[in-house]
Protein 1
Amino acid sequence: MYLRHPGIFPLKEVFIIMPTEFDRDVVVIGAGLSGLNAATLLKEAGLSVIVVEARNRVGGLTYSPTSAAYGGRVDLGGQWVSPKHGRINKLIEKYTVPLIKQFVTGQRVCLHGEDAFVGAMGTVPGLTDDEQTAYKNAFGKLYEAMDRIAANPWESADADQLDSITYATWVNSVCEPGRVRGAMTRIPGAYYGALAEEISALELLQKLKSCGGPIFMSSTEGGGQSAHMMGTQIASEGMARDLGDDIVLSAPVRTVDWTAKGAKVHTEAGVWRARYVVFATSPTMINQIRFTPQLPSKRRMLHQRFPNGRNTKAVIVYDRPFWRDRNLNGNVISTDGSLTAAYDLGDEEARKGILITLFTGLPAYRVDNLAPAQRKARVLQLLTQALGPEAQDPVEYMERVWADEEWSGGASSPFLTPGALTTIAGDLREPVGPLYWAGTHMSPEYRGYMEGALAAGEIAARRITEAC
């Protein structure tokens, strides 16, 4: 029969013949950055590849719709990069993705309940002198704990103790109740969408260490927030064009039959037999697939203890960046869990005002279940409290609740619950027969970043080529 191939925008539509089965060396499940990078490298190595994607688009957790008010593409998914993220920067250059240095001229705002305090970037405005000292001490203890994490975190001297408690328990042991504890507790939500009460302390510490630590991650001078792409999905679209017809969209995987010699991948768009399969998707999504035979119990239990966090993002466009008139740079944080952060995405000469607001971890739980109109009102209320009454009147508002996205189910970086990391230990990234694992959560470096996604795809491709 003939199936109208959905194509990859802006590729032209093609028609393909759909026999019962396709044969490839490798089936890659997931057309985000990790899966596309794995497929590209495997193809360059001379292997035949097919990428199957459940969505009707490529990009995974990068999503860049066009904003009529802004006059270009904006991002409702990942977008920040550091100069040290070599892989993603190569794609930015190759596919001419717009990149803007993060605007930080002026002061930031921090919300504490009904109060809004102003201060310099890199500080938590509103803390008293004693609280600032306590915050510095707590951060020092965080870095001391990070420094003790071994390259294989389960081999750390205090691995068992740290993996037996949540990060909230760890914070409570170094911070008194109050705003300092609130500032420290926001870290897993800010970077990974996880609640402090649910993520293993060992897991968080090793995730932070793999990314250079929170000071680097929040730095706008060479760190993780140095610059942001405007149209991140362009990179995935470029990789997809280069892969040509070796991508099938709207093809959710339902069943994987496997043996030591290969696998058969059943999707809603066809069935493919392959020597190897790369799962470039979260464990939450893998759990929706039926395996015959079932995965080994150790792997199944790992996936059950590897949930997604929460991440909701809004893009708000104004006629002009009015907050700059008050010497504010548009950066807003909170210690009360009301929001994770807001950022000004314009450049130094911006005529339009464009803000994004992030609700990750606890803040996401507080807005995700609101009706869309209520959620928008809450976002604008918080921006008004921080930046002024003009925030009530945007010319455009767009949002994405990633927990409601069918093929994502949450935030960009799954996290391990207490006890999982020391239990799975060295088997964390090991293949199961012909089945290999990718996605940013599988990367030993920059976990949760686009760079981590690319690195994990690279590792999976290399291991398969070495196994051939």
Protein 2
Amino acid sequence: MDREQWRPFLKRWSEEWIAGHDPERDHPLDEEVVRDGWLGFAPASDADVAAAEARLGRRLPPSLREFLLVTDGWRDAGPFVYRLAGTRGLDWLADSDEAWWIDAYSWDDVEEGEPDVGAVLARSLRLSLEGDACVMLLDPEDVDERGEWAAYWLSSWSGTGPERHDSFHSLMRGQFASFHALRQPPGTTRDHWDARVEEARGAALGGAVDEPLAVLAEAAEYGRRRAQLLRFQLLVLLGDWHTLSPYTLISSYVDAGNEPLFGPELLPLLFTENARGPWGRPNPALTSLEESGPESVRALVADHRRRLREPGFPFPYGNPEFDAAVRRVTARLADAPEDEEARRRLEDTLWPELKDALRRWRPLNDDHLAPVVLLADPVLAGLITPERGRELLTVPRGGGRAKG
């Protein structure tokens, strides 16, 4: 990223940081930040950069050099870093007043194949000057073909260890996304991702899978809750949703006010998973909902639990046309022979019928991408493998435009 690209990005960062500033909980903005709409400082000169490189004994990586030529330092590099060094403040971590990070992450029993975090820290360049028990670093021994150094974000409270990025630019992008995820400020970035999410929704309904997934994953990093909710539904059919926290799943429905979708779609799946895995029993997120969730949600959970005790309680698969088509499949599966090979042949016979039924499916609202409730039915869960789940997602449905 050169200085012509850094400047508009940092200007947008500044404007959106100011727009998201909360005077009740945030430290006051500097007068010049408000006046100029700029979290940075005056640009460093080529001589300033050269002097820093001579002092450090290394040529700085391209994205950091170009950054410094736009602003010689930076305020508020994300929610937890209050100041980034300029040319005069850059220093090796081992020579700084924060060298204790090295001892804190140096261990004698580093497992084979695992990174030696202490060794990385001991050779790294410190970028951050002030923060909330966190540090930003560059590793001069991990260099790519562009000359970029690997970058790290590390906090004592995250519990995850150093978070690696390919470059200083990538690290700053990550900090910008983290700020958006926590603060949800108005502005161009939020509008951009909301538009991309809507485009991804249309593409997914038309039968696309991987491209919408990628867009939704990135939008979720920027805190767009709708993106997380839509992405979750795709991951359920792909058999990969257990990588998401159950708390995140529930909040993406409940906190977004999407209880009409939560009740008939996610709730049956949570109850089924509560009984068969993967979090053990009971699911702590489900228990938390029952004990302290919004009153309307607690009522939904209690009602579902009551109905589960009723003899022959049917799963509501969706709109009547789709529901009827699915029930024709489940009725035949319920009478499947116990012989494993015979059952597999029956499933192979019924699979095209279930796949064709998806064309009759209609979403409950604009945040509904796929009938995840199918996986809540043990009879269907064995039929819908991750490979078949992907096949289902390639079927244009719910009025979506076919990919082409």
